[in-house]
Amino acid sequence: MDSYVFTPNEVAFLAGVDRRSVEKAIELDVLPARKVAEPVRGTSVQHLPAAAVPFLAALDGLVDVSLSTARKKALWRTLRARKGEALAPVEIVPGLTLDLEALAGERSRHAAEYLAARDAFLMADADILGGTPVIRGTRIPVYAVAGRLDGGETLEDLIEDYPQVPREAFEAAAIYARTHPQRGRPAAAKPWRKAG
């Protein structure tokens, strides 16, 4: 899980932190970022390694403990060197050991599941809905999935409507839509569209 696979928005969402925390870690050269082709849309955007999720989740879980930039960089190097291995405890300084599994294990597993589902089930093709990301093998836009969930429907409702689509595809679509906002004006800013 060491390649550059998540956008800053995805890292923030999956780690349970705000986008500013991710940006600050990049600005301070704690986390490396690289422009790569976005897997679903194919455009070149900034990405971070998957290990950024447990790293930021662990930092966020530290209550009343503030690490210097140098200590954060040391923690990052340790996490990255493990290349997706189990989140074993890490000694930051003598007497201070972080239980990474307790701090970030659940979020790390969720990130791995999302990554696998995103890559397996989501795609964008200029010939399908003008390149809007959809669930592979369907014409279901990721934004429609998120809209239905935001409107009060459940995953079970979606599965009932589309029994051929796995639950993981809907879950990945909802996260992708939330972390990759649509471009253009919001619908509310288009007065020529009348609610009807």
Automatic annotation (TrEMBL):
Record field: transmembrane: none
The protein, known as: DUF433 domain-containing protein
Record organism: Rhodobium orientis
